[in-house]
UniProtKB/TrEMBL annotation:
Keyword NAD: yes
Organism domain of life: Bacteria
Organism: Agromyces tropicus
Name of the protein: Gfo/Idh/MocA family oxidoreductase
InterPro entries hit by this protein: Gfo/Idh/MocA-like_OxRdtase_N (IPR000683), Gfo/Idh/MocA_Oxidoreductases (IPR051450), GFO_IDH_MocA-like_dom (IPR055170), NAD(P)-bd_dom_sf (IPR036291)
Domain GFO/IDH/MocA-like oxidoreductase: 128-236
Domain Gfo/Idh/MocA-like oxidoreductase N-terminal: 4-118
Key word NAD present: yes
Pfam families named among the record's database cross-references: GFO_IDH_MocA, GFO_IDH_MocA_C3
The entry's keywords: NAD
Transmembrane annotation, as ranges: none
Length: 331
């Protein structure tokens, strides 16, 4: 079978990685690239540099990757849908949920594969964690807490930290628990003089009763990407920067050292750091996109799932504006 002809629009920091991986994935051929702002990282190589999405369509692509600023997602995605092109859109799906609904309907009505680049789902630590939760290794899940912080990325200008960064945590949390959000309460602040918020703290609840907590900011000098899932059997800690997964087991051995037992709370059991295969998440994401196009079993993040995540992000921003708990619309 001939390779799928892939086009890429958006050749910035993320686009250059998409170009590299597309060229590495079996079954893909990068045949067209475009960016109205040029090619700062030399992504095009031997390919001509197009200026807009029509350059991809005119090249006869089967599928496309959209890695442009968020405010352009809807326009480009709808143009690709009209042309019958399967599309992977970098997260968030669009700037707002109304636009997201239009994109979802455009691809659904044409029977096209549409996906959103929530890359954390393809991180080896979280893939292993999801499988272990599903296998019952933790027992009942009580809480999922995430920390995602680091310096401000200059490439982001059109959305704040909630839609750019916290959408990772919203998506991965609902996916790990296999349950949607029902409510959120959030506080945001803007300390760096930019138009949008650069720090958020969110408390939420999922429909299955799991409580969540997310600390996200662009104001920290240290970079941190940590997910902690606590349940009956102990706690899993996933570090998605390193791809490490550690399990802290609830202990079954009583201690006679009363002061230590009081300090540590729940009795401490074994601590295990798992040896897991560490494949590049972006490559795994592209393989899932390829398999979805070919009709194979795939764990691609659908447009509908991307829209659900965006709706939660909008509820977070509404909660912060109005200083109240906000119910998340049913999915």
């Amino acid at each position: 079978m001939a390779d799928l002809r892939i086009g890429l629009i958006g050749l910035g920091m993320m686009g250059r990685h998409h170009a590299r991986v597309i060229r590495e994935v079996d079954g893909f051929e990068l045949v067209a690239v475009a960016d109205a702002m040029g090619d700062p990282h030399g992504v095009a190589g031997e390919l001509p540099l197009g200026g807009d999405v029509d350059a991809l369509i005119d090249a006869g692509v089967d599928a496309a990757v959209v890695a442009v600023p968020t405010f352009l997602h809807e326009e480009i995605a709808l143009r690709l849908a009209d042309a019958g092109v399967h599309t992977l859109i970098e997260k968030p799906i669009t700037s707002d949920s109304a636009a997201g609904e239009r994109v979802v309907e455009a691809f659904r009505s044409r029977g096209l594969v549409g996906a959103v680049g929530h890359i954390e789902r393809f991180n080896p630590a979280l893939l292993s964690l999801r499988a272990r939760i599903a296998a019952g290794e933790l027992g009942e899940v009580f809480q999922i807490a995430t920390r995602r912080q680091g310096p401000f990325p200059a490439r982001i200008a059109d959305v704040g930290v909630v839609k750019d960064l916290a959408t990772h945590d919203i998506d991965l949390t609902a996916w790990l628990a296999q349950s949607p959000y029902v409510s959120v309460y959030a506080r945001t602040t803007a300390r760096s003089g930019r138009e949008h918020e650069d720090m958020v703290a969110v408390t939420g609840q999922l429909s299955n009763g799991v409580i969540t907590n997310h600390l996200v900011n662009w104001l920290s000098p240290m970079k941190e990407r940590v997910t902690v899932v606590t349940g009956e059997g102990g706690a899993f800690v996933a570090d998605t920067l390193t791809g490490d997964l550690t399990f802290h087991e609830n202990g079954t051995i009583d201690t006679e050292w009363d002061s230590v037992a009081t300090f540590r709370g729940v009795s401490e059991g074994s601590v295990v750091r798992y040896a897991i295969a560490k494949r590049e998440p972006l490559r795994v994401e592209h393989e899932a996109f390829r398999d979805a196009i070919l009709g194979r079993d795939s764990h691609v993040v659908t447009l509908e799932q991307g829209l659900a995540t965006l709706r939660v992000a909008e509820a977070v921003l509404e909660s912060a504006r109005e200083n109240r708990v906000v119910a998340v619309p049913p999915q």
